[in-house]
Amino acid sequence: MQAPRVDWSMGARAARLIDWRTASQVGRRLAGNSVSIVPAERARLDEQLAEAVVTAQELVTSFTGLTVPGSRPRAWVMSRGQWIDSNIASLERAIEPLAIKALGDRIGSSPWRTRALGAQLGALLGYVSRKVLGQYDVFLPPDDEGLLYFVGPNLAGMERQYRLRPEGFRLWLALHEVTHRVQFSGAPWLRGYITEMVDTYLSTMELDPKRAIENLLRALENVRERRGAGTMGLVFALMTPRQLELFHQMQAVMSLLEGHASYVMNSVGRERIEDLDRMKRALDERRRRGGLERSFQRAIGFDQKIRQYGIGERFVAEIVEGGGMDRLNLAFEERGNLPTLQEIGEPERWLARVAPG
Fold this sequence. Notes:
With 357 residues, this protein is mainly alpha-helical. Helices cover 69% and strands 3% of the residues. It has one domain (13-204, 240-354): Lysin. The chain has 17 helices and three strands. Helix 1 (20-31) runs parallel beside helix 5 (111-129), helix 2 (39-64) packs across helix 7 (166-186) and helix 9 crosses helix 10 (230-238). The longest helix has 32 residues, at 241-272. It is globular.
């Protein structure tokens, strides 16, 4: 699939808040050199993933009982640069409410500030582009709803590094991303719920520089008094009560979605894929780095993403083992059935509230 031509200068106000061209350039520069894939290998990768996502959707819908109306899933095997630009386009759509609030009637922010924000965003995306294997993009336009991202060089590089069987490993990854697609297709309200949370959170952000600095100084003092709260302690200290409430809601729903996808890919994979345990160990090793990189992961919240897989998968496993898949699927019926962050850690509380008996 050819990368879409991106016009960073037109359209939404968000383009006048962040220099997206700078974000793309910095991100691509920091993405680094990826493993080379010869044309024959690339063609095989495209072919196998195209087949894998279709097979995965049949397996996931059969296992979960969730339905997927609409088109068949489609795999886009992309480069790191294409992944960066696709996520920039999604972020531009997602932060439009913040841009409207920030700019008001002004034409735009100062050029140095927009470039600085673009460079910061690009640095983050550049790092993540080296790690990500697959992605379901929640913020894609409706016409692209069935599109699933796979970063070809990262996938091929991991297969080579850990000597993984490509066909099985690619199906296993497809099961995870397809499960996300099934979640959002089987629960059409879910996309709007997440978008609403993001919009509400962004609308609560303090944009006045003076007040933002005052809040930062107060947060630093609070963290210092608590001693050792670390980066996440500072993040929490900067949040208002409403922001903290929204953050916990987002953590809960993302833990459910990531844990559900991990549970499905591992449960279905155990019946279909050889060397699954070896693949799981390789993926865990790749995610959990030590030293300076581990510190950086904590600083940008990457370790929180990893934790979501574990605690969410335990929640899903306990619900399914205690009451079956039908009871778990109640979580996808309406927003009131979503687990809270406390319930993610104590599944029996969710069962007692949503699915007693």
